[in-house]
Design brief:
about 190 residues; mainly alpha
């Protein structure tokens, strides 16, 4: 599975700084962070260092969000395979966590497609996660439920799959969109 590269030890943020705030102060800082388009922690860190917090451009954030979601989905699919012993999940985990990620890498031209589908990818991520949680707690996942979730996953990823398959030259993909059986079309 593709994952985040580990940071060098000197770049890891491993120190926790606790400060006390009133609720009004916390809300005011949170509001400023939202207005700046950054997280609460990033806002506090940047302003404490005397810098003005800068939000990531929407395109970069969309790409980062989709990569995060794909990694999460792939991890949950691998957990489903391990918990259920059902090898149906393995090709999906490879497709989502390796093939899709590799083909999306360095494809900033697809930012608008990713931006328009990030919520759907997040939604299917929640569904796959709920199945993994259930399987990890020993509850059975029946074949119909598995198949329905994988069909939804395929449908959600189909527009991204198609955009990746078109490539920079704008040619149409060959084969079926999305999923392990159509992964060669990427």
């Amino acid at each position: 599975m593709a994952g985040r590269r580990p940071k060098a030890p000197e770049d890891r943020r491993d120190v926790v700084a606790r400060i006390r705030l009133t609720r009004a102060e916390q809300r005011a800082i949170q509001q400023r962070a939202v207005e700046a388009g950054v997280t609460f922690a990033d806002y506090v860190r940047e302003t404490a260092m005397g810098r003005k917090p800068r939000a990531k451009p929407a395109k970069a954030k969309a790409i980062e969000d989709v990569f995060y979601e794909l990694g999460r989905i792939a991890n949950n699919l691998a957990q489903l395979e391990a918990a259920t012993g059902d090898e149906t999940y393995r090709p999906w985990a490879v497709y989502v966590g390796k093939e899709m990620v590799e083909r999306l890498t360095d494809r900033a031209d697809l930012a608008s497609v990713l931006m328009s589908h990030v919520e759907a990818v997040n939604g299917i991520g929640h569904l796959i996660n709920s199945l993994a949680r259930r399987a990890n707690s020993g509850k059975e996942i029946d074949d119909a439920e598995r198949d329905e979730a994988l069909t939804i996953l395929k449908d959600v990823l189909a527009p991204i799959h198609k955009a990746v398959a078109k490539g920079a030259k704008g040619r149409e993909p060959e084969g079926k969109p999305g999923g392990p059986e159509g992964s060669d079309a990427l």
